[in-house]
Prior knowledge:
The protein is an alpha/beta fold.
Amino acid sequence: xxxxxxxxxxxxxxxxxxxxxxxxxxxxxxxxxxxxxxxxxxxxxxxxxxxxxxxxxxxxxxxxxxxxxxxxxxxxxxxxxxxxxxxxxxxxxxxxxxxxxxxxxxxxxxxxxxxxxxxxxxxxxxxxxxxxxxxxxxxxxxxxxxxxxxxxxxxxxxxxxxxxxxxxxxxxxxxxxxxxxxxxxxxxxxxxxxxxxxxxxxxxxxxxxxxxxxxxxxxxxxxxxxxxxxxxxxxxxxxxxxxxxxxxxxxxxxxxxxxxxxxxxxxxxxxxxxxxxxxxxxxxxxxxxxxxxxxxxxxxxxxxxxxxxxxxxxxxxxxxxxxxxxxxxxxx
Length: 332
């Protein structure tokens, strides 16, 4: 009897050890996700960067991705700075639980942004930057309503900014900078109905005037530097605005700065290399500015004394028509 009981207990112990524990089995990635990931690896010509993507191992342990700890579904794919060639595989659209998709600092990634991305109905962050992607900024991106961060910077994208991009009402930031975009800034960028995103459109070939509609929104960051934009942008400022960082440098803007009122929130103002006239408003002395550059314009008169204005060196003010006073030479 004792021997029989002992045998039974031994058998139960062996069986319990041979079965995977619930905590371990929970980490096993979804077989459909694994199949798709291996397709992505094949499409990218099996790069060494993805050597850990071994079909014999749990894909939740693979490099460059994360799984949800509860569902074990792949929710993040971040392929960064590897020796990878080819196009972004359409198969990325078959990872239905993705919230983050990043292809970044991959200069041998070419082609256009695949429409398959629109199948990712949970996607929050889309970062396709520092690649050689070409073609337009696709209007179909407006279908991914869950996006909170869209970064397509440092590519070779061409054409105009699609007006439909403003239909992304959950965006916190829009990066289209450092491409080859042309045409005007669409009026729709002043008509976001949800959040008001930080706008980064610098280092393109955008032209024309900035739409008045942008003056109706309270942006936090606007960077339109190094384009061919023109006209008056004073309407983007005002006492009641919440703007903090502004870079309008190296454009063709032309307006009188004298009576412009700046919000107390402003900490960085870059207007260099434009055709801005008038004088520096005394209101600038009341701001907690961390950066200021108004050089290479047509400004005149004495630099107001006080606040942070004298903490910047002469390069922040030089090459104007007749600005004077510290830190420039004294007025005559």
